[in-house]
Design brief:
Number of strands: 36
Shape: globular
Helix content: under 10%
CATH architecture: 7 Propeller
Strand content: over 45%
Distance between the termini: 28 Å
Length: about 475
Amino acid sequence: MPGSKLLRHTLLLGTIVIAVSGSARGEGDFQLSFAAGSSDSAGRFMGGTEIRVLAAHGGKLYAGNGYWEDRPGPEGLQGAQILALDGPGGRWRVDHSFDERLPSGRPRDLAVSALADINLATDGSGARLPRPASLLIGSTWDLTGATRVFNRDDATGVWTATTLAQDRPAPDFLPQIRSFAVHRDRQTGINLVFAGQDPRGIFSGGYDANVPGRIRWTATPELDISRISTSAFSGLAGRLRVSSFAECNSRLYAAVGQQIYERIDGWEPQWRLLYTNPHPGHSETGLRGLTGVPSASDAGDVLLAAVEGSAPRVVRVDPKDGSEATDLDLAEFLNSRWQTQVGYVIAAYNDMAKARDAQRGDLLLMGLETFIPPRSPVPDGHRVVEIGHGRLDAGGWYLVRYPDRRYDVRSVDTSQALVATRTIRVSPFSNDGGTLYFGGYDANKAPAHNTAWILRASLAAVLGAAH
């Protein structure tokens, strides 16, 4: 916790066990906010192999963890949890544990797959609400194959589940929601919630105080992604993720595999293909972190997306015609900065975090995970860890994009086996001085235990000197 003198936990990396010490350091440095393997003030265990997503809601910060590839300790098998932080000087606590068990005794919910703050000004018919509805919603990796949306009741703290779809789970694939969005339909004026579900597609819903969860979802997806061919894209293996949504010039867009789709608003909405990545390389996801940013000409906004995989880039897509430009060649950039040859790269796992700096303007931050192939030298000041069949940079790295399209690459901490920065959020606390919270780890299909982490730092420390 932020005020602790010393916190020790163990990272199980394949067959390598590394003891890690974390302590709150001087102001301006990254400070340990949460380490898996601890307990909250009520004695409830808080663990996880990954912190998968951070979300700000109602003046508090929430985190969704996961137990993918967990090899449990004395605490036994655990289900996914949603953790909460009530203030910058407080301790993380368990807000909700997904405790339901299968007949085998295994927890039903393996990980939190998505978590989002949702604000709606109208109900599902378009009638204006007496006051806007503010909801925290989430979803999980459910071992039964069900896709459920969970909605928090802020008055009681109770989470209510609504089943969106039921599909058949596979040994290496679970149906899941990877992204949520809110959009005001430009034709109907209705505020709608969107869920990007795999393998079916994009569902929409409107506010209805009379149904469980307070969102009435459509029975079928607006965009059926099962009809989209993946044969031209190495690594997708017939499976698509709706990885992210973005609003751009008051229109809604979705990243699906290596493509971007635009919603055509109206009473009978349609989705049209806007963009296909012409240089996809090998990728298990495709595009990530779809975000709207100002264009260089100030003629409206453009779309930014990170390409995961062996041909990693950050691409800039013009929503008027789908034309693209490379905003950053990630492999070239990292190879130059680190004097090595990187392999597979993941950037902007869930989204690109927006932060405001008084001198520099609007910034974007994107978490990173980087594979360093065995033939490539380990960069000076870096260290790598062997996880499964891969060699990964151990530092929790991230990119900073400045308004002039200049990029820096920074590390949360190169002394610990953080492996991946999955999620970044600006502090929701008014007395926290613009602090940012970083969370992550990626099990990468290898055994792990208590490897989830959250650190915090001032914006000045986050920007620091470039590496």
